[in-house]
Design brief:
Elements: E1 13-20, H1 23-34, E2 37-40, E3 48-53, E4 56-63, E5 74-79, H2 83-92, E6 96-103, E7 108-114, E8 120-126, E9 141-148, H3 152-162, E10 165-168, E11 175-181, E12 184-191, E13 203-209, H4 213-222, E14 226-234, E15 237-243, E16 249-255
Parallel strand pairs: 1-4, 5-8, 9-12, 13-16
Antiparallel strand pairs: 1-5, 2-3, 3-4, 6-7, 7-8, 9-13, 10-11, 11-12, 14-15, 15-16
Protein name: VOC family protein
Domain VOC: 12-126, 140-255
Organism: Streptomyces boluensis
């Protein structure tokens, strides 16, 4: 089995991808870290590969044109039954559509957009390619979280586009909202106030499951990446935030019961 056969509920994060300058070196990094192998993706996307784990497609990595100086960042894609209609809703709700709707061969259609605060995310309308699969095993994306200044400024945008309902984490010093579809948590919004990096602005963070967070962090450093936040224990398990060779940040987590996993 190489494809996910179940159609994702519209609004569910269904895929993650990364655009980099050096595709070959990035494949070596993530292959060594997560055990991924790779095969070519749709030609319409230029130099692009899909990462495989035990035959399951789990992520995409593409190469930026030399003249494009876009942020190097993991991007979650939300499922849609109609990428064109979702693009119109994004504009209506105060977001911006940067790419698409674009046909990715027989795989499906995609949109890349920014929300009302400037964070980049994708939309995926599946055809042959339903999205990522892997059941939360080590080496797969298990959670996506928007890191922003405050949850109130952007929650309404995502509610309007994808029909999420919000559930706030009640804490005097923790501004966090979980986004739900059909009663199930699918993503989070974390308001970090002035701790938001000025050079990055609001951005989505992808969490990848690992069997041992401390070992994974050591491996990242060995491979030439670096640590942004060292391993720590949380209510959802042990986690850390790291960056790859080109500076794309992501988190590694060993879930006790990851909210989205």
């Amino acid at each position: 089995m190489t494809e996910s056969t179940a159609r994702h509920t519209p609004g569910t994060p269904c895929w993650v991808s990364l655009m980099v300058h050096d595709l070959e070196t990035t494949q070596e990094f993530y292959g060594a870290l997560f055990g991924w192998s790779f095969r070519p993706g749709p030609e319409q996307l230029g130099p692009y590969v899909r990462a495989l784990l035990d035959g399951h497609e789990v992520a995409g990595i593409g190469q930026l044109p030399p003249d494009r100086q876009l942020p190097i960042a993991w991007t979650p894609y939300m499922a849609s039954d109609d990428a064109g209609a979702t693009a119109e809703t994004i504009r209506h709700c105060g977001g911006t559509v940067g790419v698409g709707p674009l046909d990715a061969g027989k795989a499906g259609r995609l949109v890349i957009a920014t929300d009302s605060t400037g964070a980049i995310f994708g939309v995926w309308q599946p055809a042959a390619h339903m999205g990522g699969s892997g059941g939360g095993r080590p080496g797969t994306a298990v959670w996506n979280e928007l890191v922003t200044r405050d949850t109130a400024s952007v929650g309404k945008f995502y509610e309007g586009v994808f029909g999420y309902t919000e559930e706030a984490v009640i804490s005097a010093d923790f501004d966090y909202v979980t986004l739900h579809l059909d009663g199930q948590p699918v993503a989070g919004i974390h308001g970090v106030g002035n701790a938001l990096p000025a050079e990055r602005g609001p951005h989505w963070m992808t969490y990848f499951e690992v069997s041992d967070v401390d070992e994974a962090v050591d491996r990242v450093v060995e491979l030439g990446g670096h640590v942004l936040r060292p391993p720590r224990d949380s209510g959802h398990g042990r986690l850390a935030t790291v960056a790859d060779l080109e500076g794309a940040s992501f988190s590694v987590v060993h879930s006790e019961e990851m909210a989205g996993g």
